Amino acid sequence: MAIKVIAQLRDVKLGKNPGKKFVMRPDLYVPITEKKVFQEAATHSGISAGVIKAAWDAAGEVIRTWATEGHSIPLPGLGTMRFGVRSKAVEKLEDVKANLISVRRIIFTPNIDVKDELKNTSIQITCLDEDGNVLKRVTSGDSGEIEDNENGGENQNDSNIGTDIPPVINP
User: Fold this and answer.
1) What does the pLDDT average to over 114-120?
2) pTM of model > 0.85
3) Residue 149: per-residue pLDDT
4) What are phi and psi of 49, to 5 degrees?
5) Percent of the chain residues past pLDDT 70, beyond the cut
6) Is 84 helix (H, G, I), strand (E, B) or coil?
7) CA distance 157 to 89
């Protein structure tokens, strides 16, 4: 298995060095339907797809309720999710107002097994010219380093409110 990426030649007008550059983006996959997910889970578990769907729907209700109460919710086999906000930092108490919040966020932290799967999955890059013609294909040989959203980031003024684990700095 591999993650597919497109690197297409584009005219980049912003940044320090504008000009024609290869810009990478994920190769879009066909979305998988919920029905297919339940059917596959039924095949792997021996439990009917209807029972799996009912359990999944119930778990979804519980996850939404607890997350909106400010909890970090374990998603078995995947990681954890929680809600947070992106906001501006201010020095004075009297400057703390709701309008400092710029966006509400859903924060997902994958577990080590998901991170290892991603680290060990190759990336296949298809290079295209401006017209979409294939120029070459390459496969990753990188270290597979995974970005850790829990530690460090670009904007140190971001904060997360209503969570019970440390703030995520980098989206």
Assistant:
1) 91
2) no
3) 63
4) -60, -35
5) 86
6) strand
7) 5
Token pair, residue 160, equals 């997360």
Distance CA 83, CA 72 (A): 8
Q: Which residue, 66, 4, 76, 73, is CA-closest to 41? A: 76
Query: Do the beta carbons of residue 163 and residue 81 sit within 8 Å?
Result: no
Specify whether the CB–CB gap between 154 and 171 falls below 8 A: no
* Cα–Cα nearest to 26, from 109, 147, 115, 123: 123
Structure tokens given for 63: 């996850």
Whether residue 124 has pLDDT greater than 90: yes
CA angle (31, 102, 92) in 5-degree steps: 150
Q: How confident is the model at residue 14 (pLDDT cuts 50, 70, 90)?
A: confident
Pair 104, 91: CB distance under 8 Å: no
pLDDT, tens digit, 9 for 90 and up, residues 35-46: 999 999 999 999
Q: Which residue has the tokens 């990426």?
A: 5
User: What radius of gyration, in Å, describes the C-alpha atoms of the chain?
Assistant: 21
